[in-house]
Amino acid sequence: MKDFQIIIVLLSLITFIDGLTQKITVTGKLLCNKFPLKNVKIKLMEEDVMYDDLMAEGVTDENGYFSITGETVEYTAIEPYIEFKHKCPEYEEDSVEDRKFLYVPDSVFRYLGYTREFKFNFDEIDLIRIRERASWSFFLN
To answer: Which ranges does the record mark as transmembrane (predicted)?
Structure first.
């Protein structure tokens, strides 16, 4: 019974404690075989245990560039990624591999506590390089 009371007290405290508002801006350029992909809808998502949160949405411009800023309240460091769907090359049949998930590296958040606003540039993402994989984590070279 005492354990149950402790759990209830802890759960009550959690509802009164606010998480940290964390903000991130992701930028980059989408290409298909070195050609810019325009008007591609991109979702900025935040990975969670139960379900992922939509932080923001955007669209690539005529040159394939995107810049999306989103924020969320979390108790720990955010785990953001971008999600979009596109075939590369475009003449291929639709498939599960058309959905791409590109994660922001954990190293971006090493100063959590000192700052709560982060930026990450995916740089040029040529989908021809990753077309064989349905999910691809982005790592710095």
So the answer is: none
